[in-house]
Write a structure and sequence with these properties.
Blueprint lengths: L9 E6 L6 H10 L5 E7 L10 H11 L6 E6 L3 H8 L3 E6 L2 H17 L4 E6 L9 H9 L10 H10 L4 H5 L4
Parallel strand pairs: 1-2, 1-4, 2-3, 4-5
Length: 176
């Protein structure tokens, strides 16, 4: 047996998480059954406009995941492979919802592996409940006054309402 078999396995789960959804949390909960530790890595690009700041996203994620042991939150700007090199991890955890995700995720996995051969990407299929959930759609629905209460953690739902200046009363009128 090699010493590697006894080493802790840490996976990096990267994303913009603007905001984190219950679909993301489903991947994290299922991933922590496979890996000893997961680092939820809030990736940011200063050239792109996000609804929430990096700090707000990290705070929402930490709050939503506080009960899950083995999960930490960090942030990074730049190449994901650079973060993996400094963290000592060599596993990227990614969730996939549909065939449309596959092509992009496959290209990214191959590019990351080309940068550093030691990197492995592990894909988990989205839970059926979250198949059509995305941060982009969540933001669009809330911005138009719709309810996303069952699609995001409660703390995230509250922050979305505050960000879009939507009252909970108005938002609850649009439950589906």
């Amino acid at each position: 047996m090699t010493q590697d078999k006894f080493m802790s396995k840490t996976a990096i789960y990267p994303g913009t998480f603007d905001p984190i959804t219950n679909g993301h949390i489903d991947i994290i909960k299922r991933g922590i059954r496979i890996f000893d530790n997961i680092i939820v890595l809030v990736a940011y690009n200063p050239d792109k406009a996000a609804l929430f700041t990096v700090e707000e996203r990290m705070e929402m994620i930490q709050d939503a995941l506080r009960e899950i042991k083995g999960v930490t939150v960090d942030c990074h700007a730049g190449l994901l492979v650079d973060y993996l090199k400094t963290s000592g991890a060599n596993i990227i955890l990614r969730g996939m919802r549909a065939l449309s995700d596959f092509e992009y995720e496959f290209q990214m996995a191959l590019m990351n592996r080309r940068q550093t051969r030691e990197i492995e990407t592990v894909f988990l299929m989205s839970g059926f409940k979250w198949f059509y959930t995305s941060s982009r759609i969540i933001k669009e629905v809330v911005s138009l006054g719709g309810s996303v209460k069952a699609l995001v953690p409660d703390n995230v739902h509250q922050k979305l309402l505050e960000k879009y200046n939507v009252t909970a009363r108005n938002n609850n009128n649009h439950k589906r």
